[in-house]
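Lab notes, practical 5.
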Amino acid sequence: MSADDEQRLARVALTWLAEPGTRAVHRLVDRHGPVATLDLLLDGGSPDGWLHTTVAARTAAGDARAVAAEALERADRLGARLVTPDDEEWPAQVAVLANLRLPDVTRRVDVETAPPLCFWVRGSWPLGEALDRSVAVVGARAATGYGQHVATELGYGLAERDWTVVSGGAFGIDAAAHRGALNAGGLTVAVLACGLDRPYPMGNAALFDRVADTGLLVSEWPPGAEPLRPRFLIRNRVIAAGTRGTVLVEASARSGATQTARRAIYTNRVAMVVPGPVTSAMSVGAHDFLREFPKARLVTGLAHVLEEVGRIGADLAPLTRGPQRPADALDDDARSLLEALPRRGAMGVDRLAARAGVDVRTALRKLSLLEELSMVVRRDGGYALIPPSRPKRTTAAATSGSA
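Output from the prediction step:
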């Protein structure tokens, strides 16, 4: 076995011995390399008590190197590959996880947030290239029709503009975002919390196959790994750090999707929130997130998202404006005269000028302008408004051709 193969095997074995994100393992690999770290842990030399216990329990269930070798063979049969930091396609941006520290946390999944040791990837795109220009779209599994519509539109619009759409492949918002990107013929990446050969949820198996055909399926866990509950939160740190920003579409009060957005905040990525009805339980978590994190950005559509993650000065969202009206271009004097005219009938110039608060000479000049714009008409008694045109009503007799 070559030295490179030995290091790759060691990374897989370490991921099996301890869950991805374990800081003690990451520090040891940085200091000694993966092979020496594996030897150290297998010899009982763990510097951390709980890690020592975990390694001992896993070792009792099998030989770490043999398990890793089997995982590599299984991945080969699956058409998947192992990507490590030594590979050209490694996404360098996940290194920011080395500095991720979530405040006021005690759970291990919130403390152990180190960078990945390796990725399992299914799909032809280079992983780093796919994630280089990417946005995560996440949210509730029990999404409302409103939430699914928004997620689909965002997925489609981002993909149409050559952004990679990243999500977790779950029901609801995740699946809607993936499908939106696929329908646009764009690139989408599903980051799983289990082995690539055990896609979860199984109800999305056909969706995962479509994603793998044109995009990427990605996981830190080797083939055969089960989708255990803590692994979803472990996975979420990769979605947050691997993308330029995370859009939270819908989230209940206890939603894992808010944890992805939280990790985005603390890795200095852009966290965006789509508002929902205040009466919807599926928007409670999203609205609370906006209140908790002033850095989070409220977005209502694709233009806002692109403004947050795009190039400075090049992707500004257009200002929201109402419909343009002819009177919008008028100056103050012309608008005052227009407002002073009665809704019905005509009014003399002298009286109209007094009512509008302008001199007669100005009134005559502005009324001529309004006349040219077909907004007023001159009559014997002075000037009158031209009512806006209305569409002609079509009677049943006229449409049937009867007299």
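Observations recorded by the TA: The first strand starts at residue 81 and ends at 83. The chain has 18 helices and eleven strands.
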